[in-house]
Amino acid sequence: MSIRVLIADDQAMIRGGLRLILEDQPDITVVGEASDGVGAVAEARRLRPDVCLVDIRMPRLDGIEVTRALAGPPNPLRVIVVTTFDLDEYVYGALRNGAVGFLLKDAGPALLVEAVRAAHNGDALVSPSVTLRLLRHVTAAPRPASARSAARLSARELEVVRAVARGRTNQEIAAELFISLSTVKSHVSGIQTKLGVRNRVEIAAWAWENRVVEGA
Asked: What is the dihedral of CA 166, 71, 15, 105, to 10 degrees?
């Protein structure tokens, strides 16, 4: 079954380029487009796509507001934010409002397709070349509640957190820690519950915020 994608961007050329890349894949179909934030929310609620690609800067509603509207209850949609590095603070806000990943506009076809498939599978894209640079840049002071959460994590769970924060995939974590893929998935799920976060992007953000990653 094809992954249904909505593209929201105020530039027609960008929308067209993203559509060409995505529809070249046999398992992805672009079901709609929007040129501003209000239209993006309306089309997403009408079409209920599997994944929404949302530009961070759009007329009427920006990507953060669109993400807040679409990724929250009662019927959350999976949102990937598209950005550039000079807009890091906006992306961080989008992640905090439920985005499952983000891309640079010049990330390239392979990463775009990977992000869409990851979002559709209930995962989140954590790319070492993109996410870690962003998370380092926006690292904030630890919050007391987060510090208490860290105390509830086991030593193994902290190892998994550090690996997630460094952009490792589940397969890579399994190989590095000499555990099974199913065990990694179980740890990630348990970590999300203990930290009160929704996905691995938020695990990574929490790790960098709370200085649990070496060098943070």
From this structure: -20
Tell me which architecture the domain covering 3-125 has in CATH.
3-Layer(aba) Sandwich (3.40)
Architecture of domain 141-209: Orthogonal Bundle (1.10)
Domain segments of the chain as ranges: 3-125, 141-209
Crossing angle for the helix pair 109-120 and 12-23, nearest 10 degrees? 70
107-120 tens-digit pLDDT: 788 888 988 998 88
Instruction: Give the torsion through C-alpha atoms of 216, 54, 70, 92, to 10 deg.
Output: 20
* Tens digit of each residue's pLDDT (9 = 90 or more) over 165-185: 887 778 889 999 999 989 998
